[in-house]
Amino acid sequence: MLLTITTTHSPATDLGFLLHKHPDRFQSFDLSFGKAHVFYPEVSEERCAACLLLDIDPVGMVRRKVKDQQVLLDHYVNDRPYVASSFMSVAISQVFGSALNGRCKDRPDIVTTPLPLTACIDVLPARGGERFLRQIFEPLGYTIKAQQHSLDELFPDWGESSYFSVKIEGTKRLSELLNHLYVLIPVFDNRKHYFVGDDELEKLLAKGAGWLAQHPEKEQITRRYLKHQTSLFQTALARLVEEEQTAQIESRTKDDQPEEVLEKPMSLNEQRHGTVLATLRSSGARSVIDLGCGEGKLLRELLKDRQFEQIIGMDVSIRALENASKRLKLERLPERQAARVQLQHGSLIYRDQRLKGFDAAALVEVIEHLDPPRLAALERVVFEFARPKTVVLTTPNQEFNVMWETLPADQFRHSDHRFEWTRQESQDWANRVAAQYGYTVRFLPVGQEEKNVGSPTQMGVFEHV
Ligand code: SAH
């Protein structure tokens, strides 16, 4: 089984640096299922091709099987030595590991450069045919040529097989191409030679980082990669959907922040953080976790007050955390200050040991960013598992929206809000949550109160019974 990667980048011999394999050498590697060989059939400044040849040993593999397993003829005679399958993914990760992970000590510049690349897979068992090949590779920006093989050239009546020779072409970083192949080859094959467990889920999410969440066929890819194991599939999909949403939130909040612009004249944001800070102070908390800390404005205020000995900011958005780190000047804080504050990447809809053991948690303008099923998960994560003594939560008061002349009647304050509640709705929700998880709750207005509509923000303070 042969995989050939070709580039016409100039100088094309850079491919040797990227793959960490010298173009003049023929190299062989022992793998658990046979051997892998790397060689370059073509080397020039204009064009360079590297081959990864797998020599799978089906007999050796059967011999290594546990003794009491029944050995069938199929174990000896099968297509595995001749087709690209999950064995190829294993070989890619073991033989081209540095390239797969985007590392190149000698030439870090070319790792991040998209290059004109072609990958030829000699024989790919593609159940789903050419249409499926296109559905998978084209959204990733590749052009694709696929040639289907007949079952037997001597007997054309037998028709076509499900085996294809496939050529994909695109301008990509080499690590991108290898990650795509690593995940997708077993997806076409739809058969895997090793047990699929939690570890596979993590591998899929790591190798799929940055592209799988946005792929229109992510469900099919995930289901097939995880060998149709429903529970793993659902976990993976939930995490991919979340990654996609985060990317969307980030792209929306990148340039302007309508909510902040809208609320600016009242500097509501500052009033909100001031009120939350005062409430946290009076709760006596020494350790505080700011859940959905965003760009770290509340963290900065907390850091100024010595009462708070341990301050954690957590958010699902990496971009927000990077901005928080800049705002807090984490790199330059004196040692004692730096020891008090930490940023954590995480999501409020998954149980997480790191959220436990705090005196207080802040949830400032976060819950309205979650769809109802996710909000239900957040409730359990915060009030049942993390269970801080005090939770200070704020959310917009929808009734107040009429006071903003520039906000059309049917719109939320921020395009990412999934809901905005009236005072009654917020209080009903908070009372229900408090009763369910053994907390008391009291409500406070934040910002200037107006007749009939109340204050712009509503705050709930939950405390352990
Ligand atoms: N608390 C901050 C930011 C509010 S904006 C402040 O008062 O300024 C809402 C924040 O919630 C965003 O930073 C968003 O990334 C974060 N968020 C949304 N869904 C989340 C989730 N599931 N887990 C953790 N944070 C989340």
Automatic annotation (TrEMBL):
Pfam families xref list: Hen1_L (PF12623), Methyltransf_12 (PF08242)
* Domain Methyltransferase type per the UniProt entry, residue ranges: 289-382
Q: What Enzyme Commission number(s) apply to this enzyme?
A: 2.1.1.386
Q: Which domain of life is it from?
A: Bacteria
Q: Does the keyword Metal-binding apply?
A: yes
Quickly give the catalysed reaction: small RNA 3'-end nucleotide + S-adenosyl-L-methionine = small RNA 3'-end 2'-O-methylnucleotide + S-adenosyl-L-homocysteine + H(+)
UniProt keyword annotations, A-Z: Magnesium, Metal-binding, Methyltransferase, RNA-binding, RNA-mediated gene silencing, S-adenosyl-L-methionine, Transferase
Q: Which Gene3D superfamilies match?
A: Hen1, N-terminal domain, Vaccinia Virus protein VP39
InterPro entries given in the database record: 3'-RNA_MeTfrase_Hen1_bac, Hen1, Hen1_N, Hen1_N_sf, Methyltransf_12, SAM-dependent_MTases_sf
Enzyme class, broadest EC rank? transferase
Q: Which processes are annotated in GO (biological process)? A: regulatory ncRNA-mediated gene silencing; RNA methylation
Query: Does the keyword section mention S-adenosyl-L-methionine?
Result: yes
| Stretches assigned to the Hen1 N-terminal domain | 1-240
Molecular function terms from GO: metal ion binding; RNA binding; small RNA 2'-O-methyltransferase activity
Query: Which metal ions or organic cofactors does this protein require, according to UniProt?
Result: Mg(2+)
Family per UniProt? Belongs to the methyltransferase superfamily. HEN1 family.
Extract the NCBIfam families matched here: bacter_Hen1
Query: Which PANTHER family does the protein's record reference?
Result: HEN1 (PTHR21404), SMALL RNA 2'-O-METHYLTRANSFERASE (PTHR21404:SF3)
- Name of the featured protein: Small RNA 2'-O-methyltransferase
